[in-house]
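Severity: low
Component: inverse-folding endpoint
Summary: output formatting inconsistent between runs
Steps to reproduce: submit the following structure tokens with default settings.
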């Protein structure tokens, strides 16, 4: 049995896409830029909020740093007020996490979402379940760098062999591989199975119940 299970947030434990889409599209429209359909955001998300905004901007504007800063600030302001309007856990996730906790498994989140909303959403939707929650923080390289994973394992006094990682994107799979972890790709998130496998997934799952099967059995 694994002692620590670490999860990505968006697309893995939380269905947060609608709020991200609405807030980013609203920020784009404020600057006169075209908005995007929901499906486009599947590929904008994954490398932090600033990169999300940059990918959503018109190609000829993406490297205007001052403009990017302004659009990113507008998105951040909208997301602060509306980042939980439609967001909810994927069905069955809370029950599975509760089961793991009851069986003595430590639980963590490592996300490229900014640290403040990551912690706020974790506490709102999973109160008391997670031992540690790390979002994007100054001075800590974001995923796929394994730094936050290493920090979490050190804090919770577990080894890589005692830790399992779950995510829904190629970035997540790279992160798990870089940290030397058993790395599980979940298929209810934002990216397809082939992306997860091509980026090093140890295995993929399509039902939340399989999370407990992998950890407890």
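Observed output (run 2 of 3):
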């Amino acid at each position: 049995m694994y002692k620590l299970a670490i999860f990505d947030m968006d697309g893995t434990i939380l269905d947060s896409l609608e709020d991200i889409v609405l807030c980013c599209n609203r920020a784009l429209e404020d600057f006169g830029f075209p908005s995007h359909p929901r499906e486009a955001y599947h590929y904008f998300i994954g490398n932090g909020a600033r990169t999300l905004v940059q990918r959503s901007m018109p190609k000829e504007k993406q490297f205007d740093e001052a403009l990017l800063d302004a659009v990113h600030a507008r998105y951040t302001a909208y997301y602060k007020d509306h980042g939980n309007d439609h967001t909810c856990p994927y069905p069955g996730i809370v029950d599975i996490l509760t089961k793991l906790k009851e069986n003595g498994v430590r639980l963590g989140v490592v996300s490229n979402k900014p640290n403040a909303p990551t912690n706020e959403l974790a506490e709102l939707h999973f109160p008391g379940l997670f031992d540690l929650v790390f979002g994007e923080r100054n001075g800590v390289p974001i995923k796929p760098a394994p730094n936050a994973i290493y920090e979490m394992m050190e804090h919770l006094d577990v080894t890589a062999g005692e830790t399992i990682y779950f995510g829904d994107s190629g970035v997540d799979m790279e992160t798990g591989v870089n940290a030397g972890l058993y790395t599980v790709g979940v298929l209810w998130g934002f990216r397809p199975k082939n992306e997860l496998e091509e980026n090093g997934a140890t295995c993929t799952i399509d039902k939340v119940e399989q999370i407990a099967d992998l950890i407890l059995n």
